[in-house]
Amino acid sequence: MRAPMSWLRDWVALPEGLSGRELAEVLIRAGLEVETVEQFGAGVGPLAVGRVVDFVDQPQKNGKVIRWCHLDVGAALAPDSPPAPVEGRDVTEGVRGIICGAHNFAVGDLVVVGLPGTVLAGGFTLTSRKTYGHLSDGMICAEDELGIGTDHNGIIVLPSSSGLVPGDDPSAYLGLGDEVLDINVSPDMAYCMSIRGLAREAAQALGVPFTDVVDRAVPAPVADGYPVVLDDPACSLFVALTVTGVDETAPSPRWMQQRLTMAGMRPISLPVDITNYVMLEVGQPLHAYDASKLSGPIRVRKASAGERIVTLDDVQRTLSADDLLITDDSGPIGIAGVMGGATTECDATTTDIVIEAAAFDPSTISRSMRRHGLPSEASKRFERGTDPAATYAAAHLVARHLVELGGGVLSSAETVTGAVPIMPTQRIRVELPSQILGVEVPAERVAEIFRASGVAVSEASDGELELWPPTWRRDLRDPYDYVEEVGRKIGFDTIGSILPTPPAGRGLTSGQVNRRAIVRALASSGFTELLTLPFGSAEDLDRLGLPADDRRRAVVRLANPLAETSPYLRTSLLPGLFAAVQRNTSRGNDDLALFEAGSVFRAGSGAAAPVPGVDGRPSEEELAAIEAALPVQPRHLAAVLTGAWRPAGWDGAAEPASWKHAIAFAELAAGEAGVAVRREADDHAPFHPGRCAKLLVSDATGGDVLLGHAGELHPTVCKAFGLPARTAAAEISIDVLLAVAPGPGSIDSVSQHPVAKEDVALVVAETVSAGEVTDALVAGAGDLLESIHLFDIYRGSQIPDGSKSLAFALRFRAPDRTLKDAEIAGARDAAVAEAVRRFEAVQRA
Length: 845
Prior knowledge:
- 26% of the residues lie in helices and 26% in strands.
- It contains 22 helices and 43 strands.
């Protein structure tokens, strides 16, 4: 909201000499966000009033027709040498010769002149210069050249009623130097989206008189004027006045155009300018219809799905069933509270006007405005909430301006349909503001603040204050809204900063501890953590090679995606990491070990979540329905590796990053949570079928739970994503890992007794994995086995075809004694026996 100081002074008796910056400080203390204080036409001048003595139109070779003008700028500003006369006419003292390209003035008109030395908008300084065969001694100025408007099709012509004479300074008349406050109005102070509301705040903060021109109460319903029918409760009140005989050629007065320009709006025509002016002044959006273009009664209703309208911006829009419309017998003539329709627009032939002033449901207007992308000045006010009691007075203000400025006649027959909604009352203890704010506020001061804010106050029999908020204060609903009002008015800077003593915390949960430990361990081991955007596309899933029934294809589509190329929430972390790898390798950074921990999203039931009201806590049923409508959001951990894990150096060749490091990534993460991982070969996209490991962990019952997969990516996936050949990756579920992680436990003491080392080599079928043999040996060895490690795999002539030899290093230790040879041998033999039983393994000598 942009508010000129001169406009505010019409409403409130601001102290003489109060600057815009001083008023800004006052309003900031009252809770408003004043972003800037600008000076209208800052840095422009000096200017002078000139009278056109005569001019000659002179066609030029370039097709332009310029005017060689003589202007009387007063004796005090006479040039050292007068210009040459035109067609033998004498040139009197004080006349200057100026070239002008505009043609919207006549002999005798008063114009704004910039003489040599005048600074125009943008810092351009005028000088006398020869052009088009004449010495032009200045410039006749247009609005855009002074920075006070956008009109560049003609120069400024001053009316004779201005009282200005040649040589006068027109700056004050043009509003130059007026200060404009640019205020960011928060939604809870919607009434400040108007000069009326800002003036009321300034008056209350400064303790000066405030004059409210909204002095007409909304009368009882009457239907004598243009017929109006309300078919939807989203419109609670509709006022229609008719003004006939408006002079369609009458221009908006300069004072109105200046204020609209300073407020950030472009003057258009008299009816439009008047409705915009009253909207800015009172805060009530209005609309003017050409009465001759209306067909039948005005009707307010919801749209039919697929219905269409051409709005004032000449765009055809398809409507939703939730859009509130203004219609007549011809169909939609406006999207209520957002933008009018082109079919009933006032134009240069309009003489009879129907004025609309209505009260609409804020949420309905907000949804329509966002749905159609039409953030108009009207919708910005309606979505925050307007003062329904101001509709009647605002409509009459528009009618009065049309009568006074356009020569119209206001019809005595008027229409008022609906009524002003009743505001909710509230009772509060008079000491509540002091208790909440921590500052002593006397009861008399509390009541005074409320009354100055427009709240009706009475004292109940139990000593509480009974409060009736004004119609423009929709934000005053519960007792703490009134406490906030007291805090704003006494000044938040008067409230001391006293921090409460926080209660003793219970520390991090085991899940938080594990997640942080996992990320730290991975980063310490050489991986680099990334945060990628959680969006994806169907093309990403196709490039991963996922089958049609893969659960990762259960995507959630965004209603308003940042980019149509990525309209879904991700179901895997890998595509985001692949994109990071592709960007890095395209810039020559080939050795990468990247990981990310984050949520993925899987489509849920598909039911729409309910939208609970804001007047209380949602019910348990509503919360359950909201939870059920949300997508499943498991937390995953993923890594991608390319290039060299260890670069080549003097001590050896480079070690390439491979599937081994991807598996080690998952095992390191699981190890930090105290979980052992078991591996099995698997065929799972996007991994190479022969180089993919299924990672399993045990739950509390001893059953296997899928943790994730790791291995080398399929060559077609590498090609589709632009990755280096043999890129390795892993993706596991953090939720599964934390679910099976052991809770806090005791730390066993380190045994002081020696370890016993035993090696065994077992010949098994090629189809048996090393992990399966490891599990068998662990199960057979019992509690004395401290560790087991696979240190060799042999395939060759010394063992049968289709077999392999797996060599394991077993370490045995007891916590309370030195093991005897017989105990060690027994544990070793039991381990081998279990492998023989499960896989028909043969122990090599």
